[in-house]
Fold this sequence. Notes:
Anticodon-bd_dom_sf; 2 domains; eight-stranded mixed beta sheet; BirA Bifunctional Protein, domain 2; Rossmann fold; Histidine--tRNA ligase
Amino acid sequence: MASSTLKAVRGTRDLLPDQTPLWNRVEATARAVFARYGFGEIRTPVFESTELFARGVGEETDIVSKEMFTWEDRARAASEKAQNLTLRPENTAGVVRAYIEHKLGETGALQKLFYIGPQFRRERPQRGRYRQFWQIGAEVIGPQSSGAESALRDAEILEMLATMLDELGIRGWKLELNSVGNADDRTCYNAALREALQPVKHLMCEDNQRRADLNPLRVLDSKDENDQEIINNLPKIADYLGEESRVHFEQVRAALDACGVPYTINPRLVRGLDYYTRTTFEFTVTTGLGTQNALLGGGRYDGLSEMLGGPRAPGIGFAIGEDRLILTLQAQAEADAAAEGKTLEAPKLDAYVAPLGTAQNPAALKLAHDLRAAGLTVEVGDGSFKLRKSFDNADKVARAIVLVGEDEVANDVFTVKNFAQGEQVKIARAELSTKLR
Length: 437
């Protein structure tokens, strides 16, 4: 009996060579912007102790209770204990764990860290959402004396994100902003929400009924359409902010106004993780993502280090769903091409070097080597191909074909055809790289 064909696991995918150039451009732009703002890269393990996420993200969150890939790492010896491990569903907890473990706070300096890598959640795969998905994120964290708690850090992160989206060419982004206050503010607000939800929670979906008792703040984050009218009538967090939280939020807004970064206050924006305090934010887009239009989000987490057993270390960070960012860029490019009556095409190589006979293969490879050394992108053919096949192959992948025959090698002058212009010319080896460029 024939075996079935193996395929990628549901919720995962392969990124093929015609797709990865856009991913590389996005990541290169992110790295360049982060460098200008003084961020350094951190790479944490893709799996961590399950306890890290239970304590940091929150045991009652959907992520921890429903979506994590967790397993027991069995003891290898009698002296060892079995350990529960989890593929990371998000990266902030891991970064803060590394901050604590490596005693980065003892330097007294503000730590500005970024990461790019895969995360894992067992959720229903859909457009732009996968079980293995990629995030670009950054965290600013440090001891109180480093200024990590300053509203200036919140505004700087948001201004940096606006800069990065602009440099990537993302159009129509919108920044939504809110403050969820400090721990005391949230305690008062949760009590008010719980009281307001008691008489109406039975009318809500099962998830929101559970949240109404365990963590009513999460009800505000619900996307259930049938519950929106009830949610819109619940108390607003702004009415429960203490003076300290109110002043902090006003300072964030003043700095954004000074930088010319537009934003909208969204009183329902609470984000989905337990560690958030004070500033929370999301960037949304109008193209490519449909109704679930959040592109990235984040917020302040002044108590997360203590939740993980570390010293006081205020922080703020964000995560960009890179899969969703790519979808947005592709949708914009398709819309632009359609408006111009064009179709999207993959970028082509500078040249295709075609040997005229197998005897010219070495000379063709040497020429390709020299052109590549000059910074050009080049494919080299095989002399066993017929001339028509060489032209067909070249036209698919390159802007020009360079013919390498006996006469060309002997005279160091090569026949070059530019496909777009349709012209065929002779070019000396010394000028070839300049002309092809």
